[in-house]
Design a protein that fits this description.
Blueprint: E1 5-9, H1 16-30, E2 39-43, H2 49-56, E3 62-65, H3 82-87, E4 92-95, H4 98-104, H5 108-120, E5 124-129, H6 133-137, H7 141-152, H8 158-161, E6 165-168, H9 182-199, H10 202-207, E7 210-213, H11 218-225, E8 232-235, H12 242-252
Parallel strand pairs: 1-2, 1-8, 2-3, 3-4, 4-5, 5-6, 6-7, 7-8
The structure holds 1,3-dihydroxyacetonephosphate (13P).
1,3-dihydroxyacetonephosphate (13P) binds at residues 9, 97, 169, 174-175, 213-216, 234-238.
Amino acid sequence: MRKPFVAGNWKMNTDGNSSVSLAKAIACGSSNIVGRSVSVAVFPPFNYLTSVFKALNKSNIALGAQDFYFEPDGAFTGEISVAMLKDVGCNYALCGHSERRHVIGETDELINKKVDAAISGGILPILCVGELLDERKASQTNKVITRQIKKGLAGLNAEKISAVTIAYEPVWAIGTGLTATPQQAQDAHKLIRNLLAEIYEARLSEEIRILYGGSVKPENTAELMQQQDVDGVLVGGASLKADSFLSIIQAAV
Ligand code: 13P
């Protein structure tokens, strides 16, 4: 019912040439399945969005941004608006990625404004949530996820929420080689789906895709995807090589 979704977050990596060749290789290697049996999106750095958009050309691979600011325009030096993202061909944007929360210091309140602004401006937000290692050790995982979901989606009505994808990325699994076990991922995803059912309604909660992120590789994708509430993956490091990202796309179908 929920089509698998594979997203590649390139973070602050690639350059002008490598971003274009990576996009072309992904488009070429996945043309037989993308769109029909799996949704795929890539999230390059801002300054390569235009050239990657051209490189993706007529493929069904969507373009996304790693961040943006919630105000429509004005004196916000260094920031990028939702309309600017649309202008260069983006359909998606990440909101509240763990590195934005924990390195840059974004709050739940700011992330909530971004989710709302994205939807209002016609960009599909991917709201990222996930606990720190210390929070997991202190049995705070459910509490942290619940807070991030409730505050991140505050004030959004049912119509708006249907534009949202959630990504569960436990911070201790990002870039560490430590992946959550399929059961740990399923438990967190189930908690999120139950929260969505509680805030909105069961039918809507069944339609929203929840992705897992954190050291996703070709070898662990299939078993993660077998979990009932894991609808896709948000991939960092392994999305920077066409071979491994293509293997992940294949394994997600
Ligand atoms: P890694 O796949 O490198 O662990 O990164 C995950 C991530 O943060 C994707 O947004």
